[in-house]
Each structure stands twice: as C-alpha cells, then as structure tokens.
Design goal:
- The chain has 424 residues and is α/β, with parallel strands linked by helices.
- The protein contains 18 helices and 7 strands.
- It has 3 domains: 121 residues, Nucleotidyltransferase, domain 5 (2-Layer Sandwich), CATH 3.30.420; 136 residues, Helix Hairpins; 140 residues, no CATH class.
- The protein has a 5-stranded mixed β-sheet with strand order 3-2-1-4-5. A two-stranded antiparallel sheet has the order 6-7.
- The longest helix has 37 residues.
Length: 424
C-alpha cells in the first residue's frame, strides 16, 4: 500500500472508537511505517494522547478519520484546533472492509487501518467536518431529543389505546386525546366504566371545564352516554389486571408530557435568538416544531452544499435511478439520515394546509397516479430547492413572489392559480 500524506497535514490518523478500548493507526508525513496505539476508554488517556500529539507536531495540523459524525469521539476531538476531522459513513467503511476481508469479520485494529487508508488514498472523496456554532448544535440536539420523546409518547399512547379497547373502549372518546393531561387524569380517576358511572354529572362537568373543554354540546353528549353505557366485559380478571396496567402507563405518560412541554419552550427560546430564525419561520406550515428542524437541517455553513441537489440526495428525498442494460428502475432512497428525511417530509405535508401552489402540486401528483407519500416526497423535493435559495440569499420566503415566478415561467401550476396581486 503506497500511502502518501497530503502536504497540508503533518500526519494522518485513523481512529476506531470502542466501548472498552480505542485503536489508533497513525502515519506521519516523515514516516514510512504505520504506528499502532491502543488507548484506554478513559478521558485521561485520550487527553494524554492528544497532549503527546501536540508536543510531537507543534503548530501543525493533523487529519483524523473516524467512523461517525457525532458522538463521544467527535465531541472529545472537536475543540482541538490542530485536528481536522473526516467522518466516514459506517456503511462505507463496512463495504470497504468487505472488499479486502471477505469473511466479513469486524476487527477494531483493522478498522483503524482501513480508516487511515481511506484518508490517505481517497481524501478527495471525503469532506472535512465543519461544526456549526454552539447555538445551532444545541438546537440540533434538542430537536432530535424531542423526536425521541415523541416516539416514546406514541408507544405509550398506542399501548394505552390497545388496552382500553380490551375492557373499556368508551374511555377513548370520553377521555379525549390520550397524549394529554386530561386523559391521564381521567383514566387515573376513573379507570373503569363502573367507577365512572358512580360519579355525578356535576363532578364530570367540572372535570371537563377544569381541563379546558369549552364545548357545552360535547360535554352534555358525553354526560348522556355515560349512565346508559354497557361494559364490554365483566370478567374481573381482565378488568383488574388492565386497571393496573392503565395506571402504570398513565404514570409514565404524565411526566413525559411535562418534559415535552418544557423542551418545546426551550427550543422556542433558543430558536428565537438564532440569526436565521426569520428565514425558516417564513415558510408556510413550518410552525414552532418544524421551523427549528429545517434550520438545523441546513445549518449555518452556507458553503456546505454547492447546490440544492446535494441536500435532496443527502436527505433521501431525491429518488434513486438504477439502470441495467435496457431496464430502468426508480425507487425512493433508503440509505439516508432518517430524521432529516422525516423533517422535510413532514414539512411538505404541513405546507398543504397553508400554501395554495403546494396543495395544487400535491393533487396534480395524485392525479398522475402517485400514492400519498410519493406525492409528498415529490413536493418536498421542490420545497428543498426553494428553501435552499432562501437560505443562500438570506431572504424570507414570499408566496406572492413565488407565484409571480410560476406565472412568468408558464408553469402548469400557474394556470390553476389566481394571478398574485402586484403591489403598486
């Protein structure tokens, strides 16, 4: 293997981060042999190794290849200015490993060598990692944590719904949305139909009003249904066991709802102080949840993407075209950051409610035979071009301006849209 160190760097390093130990392969610019080191899984060991590198290569930059773009190793190395990090996709490393080791066995020392080889021989295909500012990275982590909490909430409410259908299905409409404090309070107070029917109409009316239900017709309809409702089952074993589980699920759900509310508040406060807040808030349908997610999708480095197409491909919104001989197969992209793709997909779906041309475009795709999610992805593909342009030029999205552009281009959508009002 003829490895050469790029002139810019005094050495190239491949690191494979493990749970118990970390393996390092280092090739210095003035060396011929690859050096191998094993570091203990201790902050002190990593700090000592970094200190030794600085003394050995004073005032010089080192290139580091690692198998992640986020995590403990990146967070430990990112603050050291003399290191230039080159994250390698784990799937890319796995394919590279299979090329030379057909058994498919994963071995940490070998992986550090392969990372070093990728860095020295194929650095032109790798992109140096440039972290966003602290505020953007904070919002990034918080919106991702929020998604995890939402997933936990969904799992709990799905379990709760399945359980209620087993012995107390009437609670689903009477308790309201299960992902609310009202539903938790309702089920903890009245976990069975029998207990609910022992309560007076006055107390039930007070309960609903105390939880913000201001629709008298809805409340009265529920009060009429409750006294005459019949139980789905009278089996004591099923009811007793189900009540225990309902109480356990609501006990988990209540603090989760409070945490989500607090996290939403913190995200909103941070997002309001960001320089690009107005840009991403200007897109129809973004709102307090999706606007921060669009912000962190693009970040603050305007040189990160040379075109909107790069983001379309990275996010998985752009389709994959496979050709073999005379056959051509188009399918959606599977290898992509799932949360990133989800952000654009959900935003495109929300824009249908607020954006006339987006709604027309979606129906146009459906009329051509596209399924719902395919049509939404197609709309997201179009939205990424628009968001990218606004992000690059630092301009707010203007619905009238975009519709005028559609009319000027003679777009098929423009023929179905009313001509926008041109300001005098």
């Amino acid at each position: 293997m003829n490895q050469q160190i790029p002139e810019k760097f005094a050495a190239c390093i491949g690191i494979d981060w493990g749970d118990e130990a970390h393996y390092v392969s280092l090739l210095a610019a003035d060396g011929q042999q690859v050096e191998h080191h094993k570091l203990e899984h201790k902050p002190a060991a990593l700090a000592q190794w970094l200190s030794d590198l600085q003394r050995r290569f004073p005032g010089q930059q080192l290139a580091v290849a690692l198998e992640q773009s986020r995590g403990a190793l990146v967070y430990a190395l990112m603050s050291h200015q003399f290191l230039v990090l080159y994250p390698v996709n784990p799937k890319a490393l796995a394919k590279f490993r299979e090329t030379f080791y057909l058994s498919g066995a994963k071995d940490d020392p070998v992986d550090s060598d392969l990372l070093l080889e990728l860095l020295t021989l194929h650095r032109n295909r790798l992109r140096a990692w440039q972290p966003d500012d602290e505020l953007t990275r904070t919002i990034t982590l918080m919106v991702e944590h929020r998604r995890r909490l939402v997933n936990m909430q969904t799992r709990l409410t799905n379990q709760l719904s399945s359980l209620l259908k087993l012995y107390f299905p009437q609670a689903l409409p009477w308790a309201g949305d299960l992902a609310t404090v009202q539903a938790c309070d309702f089920l903890q107070r009245w976990p069975t139909l029998a207990k609910l029917q022992q309560t007076t109409a006055t107390k039930l009316r007070q309960f609903y009003r105390a939880h913000g239900c201001r629709k008298p017709l809805v409340i009265e309809a529920r009060l009429e249904q409750i006294p005459t409702a019949l139980p789905l089952t009278t089996d004591g074993a099923v009811i007793t066991a189900s009540v225990v589980m309902v109480q356990a699920l609501t006990a988990q759900l209540r603090p989760l709802l409070a945490s989500l509310k607090q996290l939403d508040k913190q995200i909103a406060e941070l997002f309001a102080t960001h320089d690009d807040q107005e840009i991403f808030s200007s897109f129809p349908g973004a709102g307090p949840v999706l606007a921060p997610r669009l912000l962190v999708a693009f970040g603050t480095n305007r040189e990160r993407f040379s075109s909107a197409q790069e983001m379309q491909q990275l996010s998985g919104i752009a389709p994959v075209i496979e050709r073999s001989g005379k056959s051509c197969f188009i399918h959606r992209r599977f290898a992509c950051p799932k949360f990133l793709r989800q952000s654009f997909h959900e935003f495109a779906a929300q824009s249908l409610r607020w954006c006339p041309w987006a709604r027309l475009y979606y129906h146009q795709q459906r009329q051509r035979g596209s399924a719902h999610h395919t049509a939404v992805r197609s709309l997201a593909f179009r939205w990424i071009r628009i968001i990218y342009r606004c992000w690059q030029t630092r301009e707010l999205y203007n619905e009238d301006f975009y519709q005028q552009a559609l009319h000027k281009r003679g777009s098929a959508l423009a023929r179905q849209l009313l001509p926008p009002e041109v300001p005098a």
